[in-house]
Amino acid sequence: MNYPTTLLRRPPLLLIGLLLILSPCSLSAMQFKALVFSDKSDKWHHPNVPVARESFEALARKHFFELTWVETAEAFSDQEFAAYDVIVFISASPCGLDDDKRKEFQAYVAGGGGVVGVHFSFAFEDAERQWPWWEELVGNVFVCHPPQQSGIMTNEAPDFPACLHLPEKWLWTDEWYTFKLPFREDLNVVLTVDEDSYYPRPQDVMGEFHPIAWYHEPGGGRLFYTSLGHITESYRDPLFLQHIYGGMLWAVGERDPKW
Asked: For residues 146 and 176, is the Cβ–Cβ distance under 8 A?
């Protein structure tokens, strides 16, 4: 039988659509689902929010994960935490949640949920927002910091996903957070800063061992924290963004892909 040459060259559109639907290459499932809370009400860090959002949206496209971005405590409290594989706080925390949502968040962590804290992600001093459980989860408490300045960090864990791409020594400019002493020995420190490489005030000194980033697995969950991220331009820096993404990927842990 002789077929029209136009049909031989161009299959029907309906057939093309069916092939795309049935083809394994057309699967659109993302690697994981991430909820990111960057608090635009934070008086010290709100200029970071639009820059961080743009960078995280690009990061999600680059690394193929589903991103939900929220900028207010109200929007964060409206989320169903169990729907996510990792929850990221950028100069924000879950301390504004009411009792029911706090219990939901605790259940998320106890069920193996991943959490990433970036920069100022601690409990607040006012009574309504204090949460000892959150402080325990993060692993330490922010005390103070000197004026932002350049310093030299050491990569203490070059095999950890958040540090794989980092040099042994990393020159960086930020607020060098001081944490409560003694520093917990059960936290796995991945970055330290050399206090001799910058100019701390007397109250900013931790000594020879000054942790900047760490991880641990508390009560079934997975927590990665980095104190870096005060300066807005940090969120345009590829090394810093990969540092956060590596922590996110570790915090996700083992998963069950739907493909």
From this structure: yes
Find out whether the peptide bond into 94 is cis, omega within 30 degrees of 0: no
Q: Where are the domains of the chain?
A: 30-143+211-252
Digit-by-digit pLDDT tens for the chain (259 residues) are 444 443 334 444 443 343 333 334 434 578 999 999 998 867 655 677 889 999 999 999 999 999 999 999 899 999 999 999 999 999 898 999 999 999 999 999 999 999 999 988 776 655 566 788 999 999 888 776 789 999 999 999 999 999 999 999 999 999 999 988 888 899 999 999 999 999 989 988 898 999 999 999 988 899 999 999 989 999 999 999 999 999 999 999 987 776 6
Query: Which residue is associated with the tokens 């219990």?
Result: 103
> Tokens 């807005």 — which residue?
232
**The pair of three-digit structure tokens given for residue 58, joined into one six-digit string:** 């690009």
Closest residue by Cα to residue 174 from 93, 105, 250, 237: 237
Angle among Cα 193, 34, 177 to the nearest 5 degrees reads 20
HSE of 126, CA atoms in CB hemisphere, 13 A: 4
Domain with residues 30-143+211-252, CATH architecture:
3-Layer(aba) Sandwich (3.40)
pTM: 0.86
| Radius of gyration over every alpha carbon of the chain, rounded to an integer in angstroms | 22
| Among 168, 218, 221, 216, residue whose Cα is nearest residue 191 | 168
Residue 36 to residue 53: CA distance in whole angstroms: 9
Q: Please, what's the b/e burial string for 123-148 (b: 16 or more CB within 10 A of its CB; e: otherwise)?
A: beeeeebebebbbebbbbebeebbee
Cα separations in angstroms, 28 against 82, 90, 207: 21, 28, 49
